[in-house]
TrEMBL record:
It is a multi-pass membrane protein. Keywords: ATP-binding, Magnesium, Membrane, Metal-binding, Nucleotide-binding, Translocase, Transmembrane, Transmembrane helix. GO terms for biological process: intracellular calcium ion homeostasis. NCBIfam families: ATPase_P-type, P-ATPase-V. InterPro entries: 2TM_P5A-ATPase, ATPase_P-typ_cyto_dom_N, ATPase_P-typ_P_site, ATPase_P-typ_TM_dom_sf, ATPase_P-typ_transduc_dom_A_sf, ATPase_P-type_domA, HAD-like_sf, HAD_sf. Gene3D superfamilies: Calcium-transporting ATPase, cytoplasmic domain N, Calcium-transporting ATPase, cytoplasmic transduction domain A, Calcium-transporting ATPase, transmembrane domain, HAD superfamily/HAD-like. GO terms for molecular function: ATP binding; ATP hydrolysis activity; ATPase-coupled monoatomic cation transmembrane transporter activity; metal ion binding; P-type ion transporter activity. It comes from Aureococcus anophagefferens (Harmful bloom alga). The lineage of its organism: Eukaryota, Sar, Stramenopiles, Ochrophyta, Pelagophyceae. Residues 282-390 form the P-type ATPase A domain. Residues 571-592 are annotated as: Disordered. It comes from the Eukaryota. This is Cation-transporting ATPase. Its main location: membrane. It is found in: Membrane.
Length: 1147
């Protein structure tokens, strides 16, 4: 999809019909020609010649308006400066692709003149054109006080301004699509070539070729119709909601919602899902909206690829400033994301907020008892709308147009030279038919633009998408498949990507902090237990606990449970086999109520809650509880215990994910004693006030196991010449442990970490080695990387970028830890700037920016159910001793098939994640292998297509030039047979499958790479030598009176010999240039292709040996002069085959 965030817009006015350049000038020309040709008794020859010339020029000008937007503007429109007189606008995105001439409309509700481009409306904005997008960065307090559309006039103006909240997916007929296809430049050129061949009396060949072209275009049209039908099926039907309009709650369809509406969303009451798990069975959220009060549980798999349900809270609970007011602008994608519900995601559960002490005037509770939201964005401006636009306007180009242009341009040089040679020699012969001579020269030039090229490129894309779909990978930007074949660096998030989302609590480190000593979570003191029990954002839906897996593990370990909305209570002790019950959970014996949450923020790396006893008779007071990264909580502690840094670093080095726990009782600095138990009071308390003076309660240590097969995948990627990098928000020691476990880092090497200094610079520090530092020198980084594993902290990324030396750091560091989403983007940008082709693989939650910056972004849709099934299959595989990546793939495939029907959290294939171009329904990074293998296969297939077409065109140009002057001409049946054979071979080549294992060898990146170019030159030299020798071999047996090149075809020795030789050359070209191993299945394993080649080889050599007389008559072959000629010719065929085979092996 083009980047439409900024457009270059030029304004035009439509010309009157007679002033169009394809109407007025040609009307005058036709009138003049009519007068010149028919007014005189004898029409002049010049007029008779000019009539078809003008007709052809008129047709070309007309078609150019369909092929080129620039030509359409020149011919049918006139440039104007102001929007007042304009009727159309030429919209060109920043990347200069997909520009379109669109009609200009005018509507006061939309600010006057506007147009729609790629389903987005653009309006004039101070001399520039900008998207008509709702304001989503207004004051947060303003949104919280929204009262909906209070007048009918305001509602009508909003509807006219924003349009319906629906996806307008085109619904063309087959005829409309086919018209678009048959007027495309390549198709018109192909039909033109067929017409030229028919003029040269090749009727059968022309008709068969035309039928094949029409069939292929019709197939593409049906495929597009199915794709559009699938997109329309992705649209969710409108639902009935309540909207606050004219001061009252009124029912309306979700299609009628507009930005600024206040509406109510209710989750459907549904029974416990029989298949287990929380899936996408909730109500679909119809638009992007801000949750004003209450809480919601949503599944954002469509948006982020993260299938774990997320808890959302009302914006009234957002952080306050020092005065207790909601300050600042709404930040939808960062600070306030936890308050935003995105369109297309699923609302699993909704809990209305408690009545506020000062309710917003005219905003009573909705009749459906749903959560109250204010609409931010609708239609194609929503999150799901962006996904729809990505799919709808995705490009299928596989290699750049510049590469194709250079390829055709190079062939055109040879064709023009050959055509000029034929023209020069033909004009020397006074008896030569000038029309046939000119026709033949045109045929030589057109032969260098292979009519099969668009067909083969389209087949390559289609087959790649189908192959990825079978691997449970969905791609919304097909052109990126080829990038996967040219990858240099593969970057991975840690949690949810390399390691499982399901964490296990290893214990809690309590004071005094002693090395690796851990206490069980059920053995901690009451203060620590309160933090573990209440500091989370979990919710109970239909009796099932949903939310972050870390928090589920934390709550289970301490033995507490979510009793109801915002209430946690000690879980009933489980009864042991002996009949005794286990010890009761630690901490208070009564339930706790969460009065307020300060949600987790990635930039702060912590979250806090205010809790109090749930019983109104209990007046123990409120407590502030907090958990987060040790570095983030350290400045907030009133007293930092001895050994704080050493303890958490030791646990992190052991591979644990370490969270610091802290709390304090509420005091007068927060609120008066009588008001501390009120949630409304804490809403006004700034976060900085609540999180001051905390007391350390311990370190929570968790561990997430590696996903099955992760280490094997990394080994194969590294063995196939890919650098692998971890980019994570976790502690550098934890990240280092995982990187070494999966072999991204070398456990035998010492490691250096790039950290910032107090002065703002960066230094190298030994990992876990205390205060020893090494000065940073950007030029010495490559040499340093040879002796050490290099790691980098997120703050050092910013410092290195500011110093202009992030490039060498990004190229040589194996781990980037404590990296924020923005820092992840900067690392990918630095790798791209260094000329590397990058892949980023993550779960989509905090990796969206990096996934979009990488050439190949892969988001993994994690599923706990699938991960458990994968773990079982991995255990079985290891017991069987089924080693290697092939065995791993079989195990993973078996697990995925077993779990796919049972796991309701897996999204439908059509609902790809908006986070990245590639979305994997597999829970492991094994999908990266599938993408890279398919990418390499696609890339070498493109090079293979170009090589085959280049050789075919060069041989054809020689035959149509030099051999044509010798009277060599092919029969209509011969041309038809060769054409059908070529089409069949191309089709089978496109069906080649990638190998399951990656090779250390890297594929060539373009056809003009030295090796492919040398191969084409050497093979053409062999074929040219064989053709010259064939003509020399036939010369003694040709009659003295050479057959006229313009005459009708008649079988002769030279015609038959050249036909059989060129047919064998075609087979040799396919057999020698089929890439095979190590990037795709070998020719031997490609059974259909190898059998077809073998069968045709047998038939052609049998025809050359005279062993099949029926072939001679069918292929219009002449009898050989004698046995010696036959033997010499067979040797020539064999020599060409063996020589080309040897070259293919050598190059």
């Amino acid at each position: 999809m083009a980047d439409v965030s900024s457009l270059d817009v030029r304004l035009y006015v439509k010309r009157r019909p007679l002033l169009r350049l394809d109407v007025g000038p040609f009307a005058v020309a036709y009138g003049a020609l009519h007068g010149a040709a028919w007014a005189a008794p004898s029409p002049p020859v010049a007029a008779l010649v000019a009539i078809p010339v003008v007709l052809t020029l008129h047709l070309f000008v007309f078609l150019s308006t369909r092929w080129s937007v620039a030509c359409r503007c020149l011919v049918a429109y006139r440039r104007v400066d102001g929007a007042g007189a304009a009727t159309h606008a030429l919209a060109t995105p920043a990347d200069a692709k997909f520009r379109e001439l669109v009609a200009l409309a005018r509507d006061a509700a939309r600010g006057g003149a506007h147009f729609s481009f790629q389903r987005r409306v653009f309006v004039a904005d101070g001399g520039a054109w900008a998207p008509l997008a709702p304001i989503t960065d207004g004051p947060l307090a303003g949104y919280c006080g929204a009262r909906g559309l209070e007048t009918e006039a305001a509602a009508e103006a909003a509807r006219r301004r924003w349009g319906p909240n629906a996806f307008d997916i085109p619904d063309p007929t087959f005829g409309e699509l086919f018209e678009e296809h048959y007027l495309a430049p390549f198709f018109v050129f192909q039909v033109f070539c067929c017409a030229l061949w028919s003029l040269d009396e090749y009727w059968l060949y022309s008709c068969v070729t035309l039928c094949m072209l029409l069939l292929f275009e019709a197939t593409l049209c049906f495929q597009r119709l199915r794709s559009l039908e699938h997109l329309r099926a992705m649209r969710r039907p409108p639902r009935l909601v309540y909207a606050l309009r004219l001061g009252a709650w009124r029912p309306c369809l979700s299609d009628d919602l507009v930005p600024g509406d206040v509406c109510s969303l209710a989750a459907p009451s549904r029974s416990r899902q029989a298949r287990g798990g929380v899936g996408t069975g909730g109500a679909t959220i119809p638009c992007d909206c801000l949750l004003l009060d209450g809480a919601a549980v949503v599944n954002e798999a469509m948006l982020t690829g993260e299938s774990v349900p997320q808890r959302k809270e009302g914006a009234a609970l957002a952080d306050r400033d020092a005065t207790g007011a909601l300050a600042g602008a709404l930040l939808v994608d960062t600070a306030h994301r936890r308050h935003v519900l995105f369109g297309g995601t699923d609302l699993i559960d909704a809990t209305p907020g408690a009545p506020a002490p000062q309710p917003v005037p005219a905003r009573a509770a909705p009749p459906d008892r749903g959560i109250v939201v204010v609409v931010l964005r609708t239609g194609f401006e929503t999150a799901q709308g962006q996904l729809m636009r990505t799919i709808l306007f995705a490009t299928e180009r596989v290699l750049g147009s510049s590469e194709t242009g250079r390829f055709i341009g190079t062939l055109l040089v040879f064709a023009v030279c050959a055509s000029a040679y034929v023209l020069r020699e033909g004009l020397r012969d006074p008896d030569r038919n000038r029309f046939k001579l000119c026709l033949h020269c045109v045929l030589i030039v057109t032969s260098v633009v292979p009519p099969e090229l668009p067909m083969e490129l389209s087949l390559a894309v289609t087959n790649s998408l189908a192959a990825l779909a079978k691997s449970a990978v969905y791609c919304t930007e097909p052109f990126r498949i080829a990038f996967a074949g040219a990858l240099d660096v593969c970057c991975f998030d840690k949690t949810g990507t390399l390691t499982s989302d399901e964490l296990a609590v290893r214990g809690v480190a309590l004071e005094p902090l002693d090395a690796l000593a851990l206490a069980k979570a059920r053995d901690v003191d009451a203060d620590c237990a309160v933090v573990l029990a209440a500091c989370h954002a979990l919710a109970a839906v239909d009796g099932r606990l949903v939310g972050d897996s870390l928090e589920r593990a934390q709550l289970a370990a301490v033995g507490w449970a979510v009793a109801s909305s915002d209430v946690v209570a000690p879980a009933a002790p489980r009864e042991k086999k002996s009949g005794d019950r286990g010890p009761p959970p630690p901490g208070p014996k009564t339930p706790l109520r969460v009065l307020h949450r300060y949600g987790f923020a990635s930039e702060l790396r912590r979250m806090s809650c205010v809790v109090a006893p749930a019983s109104p008779r209990n007046d123990d007071g409120a407590t502030v509880v907090c958990k987060g990264a040790p570095e983030a909580l350290r400045p907030l502690l009133a007293v930092v215990p001895a050994g704080f840094d050493a303890a958490y670093e030791a646990h992190a080095a052991a591979g644990h994910r370490v969270l610091a726990l802290a709390s304090r009782p509420a005091d007068d600095g927060d609120a008066a004693k009588h008001a501390r138990m009120s949630p409304a009071t804490w809403r006004r308390v700034p976060r900085a006030t609540a999180e001051r003076g905390l007391a350390f309660r311990g370190f929570l240590c968790l561990q997430s196991p590696l996903k099955p097969g992760t280490a094997q995948v990394i080994d194969h990627l590294k063995a196939s010449s890919h650098a692998c990098v971890v980019i994570t928000g976790d502690n550098v020691l934890t990240a280092a442990h995982v990187a070494r476990a999966v072999h991204i880092a070398d456990a035998a090497k010492e490691a250096l970490v790039l950290e910032t200094t107090d002065a703002g610079g960066v230094v190298w520090r030994r990992l876990g080695g205390g205060g020893d530092t090494r000065a940073f020198d950007a030029a010495a980084v490559p040499a340093l990387a040879a002796d050490y594993d290099l790691f980098c902290r997120g703050d050092a990324v910013d410092a290195a970028e500011a110093a202009g030396c992030l490039g060498p750091v990004a190229l040589h560091c194996a781990v980037f830890a404590r990296a924020s989403p923005k820092q992840k983007e900067r690392v990918i940008d630095a790798l791209n700037a260094a000329g590397k082709t990058t892949l980023m693989c993550g779960d989509g939650t905090n990796d969206v920016g990096a996934l979009k910056r990488a050439h190949v972004g892969v988001s993994i849709m994690n599923s706990p159910v699938l991960e458990k099934s994968l773990a079982k299959q991995e255990t079985k595989r290891l017991k069987r001793g089924d080693a290697g990546v092939a065995g791993m793939r079989r195990a993973l495939a078996d697990a995925e098939l077993d779990a796919m029907d049972d796991d309701p959290t897996l999204v439908n294939l059509g609902d790809a994640s908006i986070a990245s171009p590639f979305t994997s329904k597999r829970a492991t990074i094994e999908c990266v292998l599938a993408i890279v293998c398919q990418g390499r296969c696609t890339l070498v297939s493109m090079i293979q297509i170009f090589k085959i077409l280049a050789l075919m065109c060069l041989v054809s140009a020689y035959m149509l030039s030099s051999l044509y002057l010798h009277g060599v001409k092919q029969g209509d049946s011969q041309m038809t047979c060769v054409g059908l054979l070529t089409a069949g071979l191309f089709f089978l080549c496109s069906r080649a499958k990638p190998l399951e294992t990656l090779s250390a060898a890297r594929p060539p990146l373009r056809v003009f790479s030295p090796r492919p170019a040398a191969s084409i030159a050497a093979q053409f030299a062999v074929h040219l030598f064989a053709l010259v020798k064939a003509v020399e071999l036939c010369a003694p047996h040709e009659p003295r009176e050479r057959h006229a090149p313009d005459g009708a075809f008649s079988p002769s020795t030279i015609n038959s010999a050249v036909f059989l030789l060129t047919a064998v050359v075609q087979l040799n070209t396919f057999a020698a240039n089929y890439t095979g191993e190590p990037f795709m299945e070998s020719l031997r394993d490609h059974v259909a292709l190898s059998r077809l080649l073998a069968a045709v080889y047998v038939l052609l050599f049998a025809a050359a040996a005279g062993a099949a007389p029926f072939l001679g008559s069918w292929l219009q072959l002449a009898d050989w002069p004698d046995a010696r000629f036959r033997d010499d010719f067979l040797k020539l065929l064999a020599a060409d085959t063996l020589a080309v085979g040897a070259l293919a092996f050598a190059l």
